[in-house]
Amino acid sequence: MRNWSVPAGRVFGVEIRIHLTFLFLLVFVWMTESAAHGTTGALHGLALVGIIFTCVVFHELGHALVAMRTGVPAKSIILLPIGGVTLLDDSRQLADAVPAALNWQRDARIALAGPVVNLLMAFIAGAVVLIAAPEVQLWTKPYVHSNHLVRSLVWANFYLAIINLLPAYPMDGGRVLRAWFSRRMDPVRATRRAVTIGQSFSMLFMLVGMLSNIWLTMIGFFLFIAAQLEERSVIFQSVLEKVHLEDIMLTDFATLSPADTLEDALDKAVHSLQDDFPVIRGSDMVGVISRQKILDALRVEGNGYVQAVMNRIFEVATRQESLASAFRKLTARNLSIIPVVEDQRLVGIVTLQNLMHSMALLAESRKLRKQALNS
């Protein structure tokens, strides 16, 4: 999901990203509104999208701020045509900060924060309109329309809150439902049950939308796809948690010395399949360096020593750590290699290259086992 989005700034330290499918919504609005009301109508339609876009941003910031208060930092917010997704960094949460029995309460509070923010915005905006601009006629239909943008600001927040409170996963109400299920079952089973209910709602939306409102059909379609993506993500994450680094780490690997010249390092890199190398002084690991960093340094500065350009900031892991843990460490600091140590001795490495390869093999093996069971 993140790979199919573009950055749009930061708010409260949280990265805001716009999913490329959002362009589909803009094109859809422009085509339908321009066909019915001309260019002016299309511009009003895009302005309405901008209002809803703003409501969604505040909705997701509500999730992010409550998550940060509970010890689960938000990494980014991805805006989709049907709303947004707040990506949380569960790996940084202290294991003893929230007892397992209370995790569902934490998750429920995070999920409910978004609708609460929208209800507050609707109440505040509505009060301002009633006092300062009664001619807007807040209670007159249509409540949300491109020709009534001020009125739409109030009701868009209200509708966004109500729709998200539906128990249709991955809407916020569905996330609360999954949190409730997770009290007595594992996350995968809880997610599957919530997804089943959510997809029932999505089918209902699409059916009703085909009979009355095309927007409901769009919501149902995107809701169905989003539920499937969430389910696959949770299932794959559970698989990664069960695989240990000792099962996939590289034990036959090349190392470099900080006293090696960059030309010598490049020569070793040419004869190795590795893209990343641990840098060893005696029996101690003192840094890491990538093939690309060696090439860039040679182009810019000419021949020098590895110790001058190696990265001295790196993470280490143990044999028994999970594949998911390694992936979180790599992505958290934008690293490409993790040394695996035992008794302060380097016994293996996990690189982003071989990690992605292992994840692909895991996915393929699951697919083959599933096909074997079905045949």
Q: Would you give an account of this structure?
A:
By secondary structure, the chain is of the alpha+beta class. It has three domains: 2-165, no CATH class; 175-242; 246-362, CBS-domain. Helices cover 57% and strands 14% of the residues. The chain has eleven helices and eight strands. The protein has helices at residues 22-69, 103-132, 149-164, 172-181, 187-211, 214-242, 262-270, 291-301, 306-309, 323-332, 352-374; strands at 5-11, 14-19, 74-80, 83-88, 276-281, 284-290, 337-342, 345-351. The strands form three sheets. A four-stranded mixed beta sheet has the order 1-2-3-4, with helices on one face. It is elongated and about 80 Å long. The two termini are 32 Å apart.
| Apparent shape | elongated
- How many structural domains? 3
CA gyration radius, whole angstroms? 25 Å
Please count the beta strands (DSSP E, at least 2 residues each).
8
Share of β-strand residues:
5-15%
Widest sheet: strand order?
1-2-3-4
Count every helix, treating DSSP H or I runs of 4 or more residues as helices: 11
How far the N terminus sits from the C terminus, by CA atoms, comes to 32 Å
The largest sheet is:
4 strands, mixed
